[in-house]
C-alpha cells in the first residue's frame, strides 16, 4: 500500500473515531424520541425500572411478579395528584421539564458532599428515568434524563406526563403505580385515596422500598403532615 493510500486510510479512521460516537448518540436519541411519541398515545405496560426490579426479585424468587395496574387519569384521586406535585415538583405546571433553580441547589449540595446525592429532578425527569434509564447517580445519566425530559414536554401534555408518572412510579418493593399502591397500603382504589393517605404515598416516592419497611418512621409522619398542608396550593395541569 502506498503512503498516500495509508494516509487516506488513517484520515478515514480518525474521522470515524469522532463521527462514530456522534452517530450512535443520534441514533439513541431518535430511539428515545420515537418511544416518547409512542407513549404519548399508548400506555406503557412496563418500564426499564420495572424490568430491573423484577430481575432482582427473581434472583431470590424465580416466580416473583410485580403489582401493577394501569388506571386512567380521571380514576386517580386529585388528592394524590396534588400530594405528588406538592412533594416532588411544586413548579410542575410551569417549567419546561427541568427546574433550573432546583437543579442548581442539587449541584451545590453534591459539590459540598463530593458525590452525587440528589439531582433536583422534576416529575418529568423522574418519568424519563423510570421509562428508559436506571437508578444510578451520575452526571452522564442526568444529562440523558434532561434530554428525554425535554422530549416528553415537547410531545406530551402535562396531564399525560402526570398520568403516566402516577401509573409507573415505584411505591414499594414490587409495587408500581397508584392503583397497586392504594390497594397494597390501604386496601382501596387510587380513585378513593384520602388526603392523608395520598400525602403519605407521595412522601414515600424518593425512597419507597425503605419506607415500605419503615412505615412508622418519624420523618415520614412529619413530612406527611407538611405535604397535607401544602396540597391545597398545588396546581394541577
TrEMBL record:
Pathway: Cell wall biogenesis; peptidoglycan biosynthesis
GO MF assignments: glycosyltransferase activity
Top-tier EC class: transferase
Protein family membership: Belongs to the glycosyltransferase 51 family.
Domain Glycosyl transferase family stretches: 66-231
Transmembrane segments: 12-34
EC number: 2.4.99.28
Lipid bilayer topology: Single-pass membrane protein
Pfam families, per database record: Transgly
Record's keyword terms, sorted: Cell inner membrane, Cell membrane, Cell shape, Cell wall biogenesis/degradation, Glycosyltransferase, Membrane, Peptidoglycan synthesis, Transferase, Transmembrane, Transmembrane helix
Protein's cellular compartments: Cell inner membrane
Protein name as it appears in the record: Biosynthetic peptidoglycan transglycosylase
HAMAP family (alphabetical): PGT_MtgA
Amino acid at each position: 500500500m502506498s503512503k498516500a493510500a495509508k494516509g487516506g486510510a488513517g484520515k478515514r479512521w480518525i474521522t470515524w473515531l469522532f463521527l462514530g460516537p456522534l452517530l450512535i448518540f443520534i441514533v439513541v436519541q431518535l430511539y428515545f424520541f420515537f418511544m416518547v411519541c409512542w407513549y404519548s398515545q399508548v400506555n406503557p405496560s412496563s418500564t426499564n425500572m420495572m424490568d430491573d426490579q423484577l430481575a432482582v426479585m427473581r434472583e431470590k424468587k424465580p416466580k416473583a411478579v410485580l403489582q401493577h395496574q394501569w388506571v386512567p387519569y380521571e380514576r386517580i384521586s386529585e388528592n394524590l395528584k396534588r400530594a405528588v406535585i406538592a412533594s416532588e415538583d411544586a413548579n410542575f405546571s410551569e417549567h419546561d421539564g427541568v427546574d433550573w433553580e432546583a437543579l442548581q441547589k442539587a449541584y451545590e449540595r453534591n459539590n459540598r458532599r463530593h458525590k452525587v446525592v440528589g439531582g433536583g429532578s422534576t416529575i418529568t425527569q423522574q418519568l424519563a428515568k423510570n421509562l428508559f434509564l436506571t437508578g444510578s447517580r451520575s452526571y452522564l445519566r442526568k444529562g440523558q434524563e434532561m434530554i428525554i425530559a425535554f422530549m416528553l414536554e415537547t410531545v406530551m401534555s402535562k396531564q399525560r406526563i402526570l398520568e403516566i408518572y402516577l401509573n409507573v412510579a415505584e411505591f414499594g418493593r414490587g409495587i408500581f403505580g397508584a392503583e397497586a399502591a392504594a390497594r397494597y397500603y390501604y386496601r382501596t382504589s387510587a380513585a378513593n385515596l384520602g388526603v392523608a393517605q395520598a400525602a403519605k404515598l407521595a412522601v414515600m416516592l424518593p425512597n419507597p422500598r425503605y419506607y415500605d419497611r419503615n412505615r412508622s418512621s418519624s420523618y415520614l409522619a412529619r413530612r406527611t403532615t407538611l405535604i397535607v398542608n401544602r396540597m391545597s396550593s398545588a396546581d394541577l395541569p
